[in-house]
Design brief:
The chain is built from 9 helices and 26 strands. By secondary structure, the chain is α+β, with helices and mostly antiparallel strands. It has 3 domains: 30-63 and 71-142 and 251-284, no CATH class; 144-237, no CATH class; 286-449, L,D-transpeptidase catalytic domain-like. Strands 1, 21, 22, 23, 24 and 25 form a 6-stranded mixed β-sheet that branches. The relative contact order is 0.17.
């Protein structure tokens, strides 16, 4: 009966937001991407993300802390660039090329002060202010205003500016008051009004936006839908969303188009001895249970890891946990690719429903803490009047998703999956945890519900 709301033998800082729960202390570390083969093409930028070969490019930029992001570095031959660390994790979590395109730069220090890397459709930025939250710590650079300004400042053949002087699309850029009939009609039909910019999101645009966590990544709408590029498009802070005549949704290659104007170096780099990106590279990176491990846990002879869908299905990765069914599903886009029985929190320490993201990974950890006489977890603080101290060593394949200390992790002390058993964590069968540790990078959404 173990969760992760107790003391964990790691380094810590701050508070996890619950009595006795602690947060991580992690050393700020540069990613190690060393690569210098003697080839004609420039070599891949080192983990400092230096795509200008400047030793001090990142002197005033906060580099990603060590949250257990991958140390694998890959090469993407389609665009001739490399990926590693937190950028590779969030690219994988968000659907790889199927959502934001392939990388078109090495990491660089953006003008707004963030560690960044450009992809065809958007620019990823590590945002340290979100690192100690349950929200994604990578966001999109707000590049669409640049594109919108270019569009509106372009003179037409008749000498008028593109966004004014009788332009039939001019109203698309104009902020709308919430009381306007247009807004009321859209909201009444299920659309959403964003007061910060005075624009709405509706229909297929809203469906795509919500499914792909647009509030975290695309940001606010900067326009209403408008005819452009032979289809219907809508500008958002970080990207340009398009719908074609067949109703297919996707992002425009906005970052690729704006790269020269934004000063992003897109020159291809050499592959050297780097592997070409493949999801197969991440299989087996977790701690794999032996036959003896499975037998000792009473988990031998049972197929807990049920692959039920195409592991090459496009779309972002996300996890669903049903508390009432004590079952977990792993998705890629709309495709459920794996399911298993689990054990979530047992009263009085139930797993809290909510929308979370994997934010810290450890291949092994010892967990310990106190519960009071009623069984409530007190973390590393001994309850008044004494309490029960517990410790569980060497827990494999730990993936934290909530600041109260809840995690997905391997479980070797029981095989009672399908029933609540933990102090709040989601207990996984050993084989499932090993598979998920490789499959679920940082940034993977975890949706817990009844």
């Amino acid at each position: 009966m173990v969760g992760t709301r107790g003391r964990m033998r790691q380094r810590w800082i701050g508070s996890l937001g619950r009595p006795g729960a602690l947060a991580l202390v992690v050393a700020i570390a540069t990613l190690l991407l060393a690569l210098a083969p003697p080839l004609a093409l420039p070599t891949a930028a080192q983990d400092t993300g230096d795509n200008s070969n400047s030793d001090n490019q990142f002197a005033n930029v906060q580099l990603p802390d060590d949250w257990g992001q991958t140390d694998i570095q890959v090469y993407v031959p389609q665009t001739g660039h490399t990926l590693t660390g937190i950028m590779l994790d969030y690219w994988r979590a968000n659907g790889t090329a199927s959502v934001y395109g392939n990388p078109i730069s090495e990491p660089f220090a953006a003008a707004n002060g963030y560690y960044s890397q450009a992809f065809q459709d958007a620019v990823f930025q590590y945002r340290p202010e979100y690192a100690h939250t349950e929200q994604p710590m990578v966001r999109l650079m707000p590049i669409s205003q640049t594109a919108l300004t270019d569009r509106l400042d372009t003179f037409r053949p008749d000498g008028r500016r593109g966004g004014g002087g009788g332009d039939r699309d001019a109203a698309a850029w104009t902020a709308l008051p919430q009381s306007s009939p247009t807004v009321q009609q859209i909201v009444g039909a299920g659309g959403q009004y964003v007061a910060d910019t005075g624009h709405t999101i509706s229909g297929d645009f809203l469906k795509w936006y919500n499914f792909n966590e647009g509030s975290y990544y695309l940001g606010n709408p900067l326009s209403q839908p408008v005819a452009e590029r032979g289809m219907t498009v809508q500008y958002f802070d970080g990207a340009l969303l398009m719908e074609d005549a067949q109703g297919q949704m996707g992002l425009a290659p906005l970052a690729q188009e704006l790269a020269p104007e934004l000063g992003i170096d897109t020159k291809r780099v050499s592959q050297g001895d780097l592997p070409v990106y493949s999801e197969e590279l991440f299989q087996g990176i977790g701690i794999q249970p032996t036959e003896d491990d499975l037998a000792n846990a009473g988990q031998d002879g049972v197929n807990y890891l049920q692959i039920i869908g195409d592991l090459n299905a496009p779309g972002r990765k996300w996890v669903e946990v049903s508390l009432s069914k004590q079952q977990l599903w792993a998705y890629q886009g709309n495709t459920a690719v794996m399911t298993t029985l689990v054990s979530t929190g047992l009263d009085p320490n139930p797993t809290a429903p909510g929308d979370y993201h994997v934010y810290w990974k450890l291949n092994m950890q010892t967990m310990e803490g106190y519960t009071d006489s009623s069984g409530v977890n007190w973390g590393d603080t001994e309850p008044p009047g004494g309490g029960y101290y517990w410790i569980v060593p060497n827990i494999p394949n730990v993936m934290y998703f909530s600041l109260t200390g809840d995690a997905l992790h391997g479980t070797y002390w029981h095989h009672n999956f399908g029933n609540p058993m933990s102090h709040g964590c989601v207990n996984l069968p050993l084989q499932v945890a090993a598979w998920m540790y490789g499959w679920a990078p940082l940034g993977t959404e975890v949706w817990v519900h009844q």
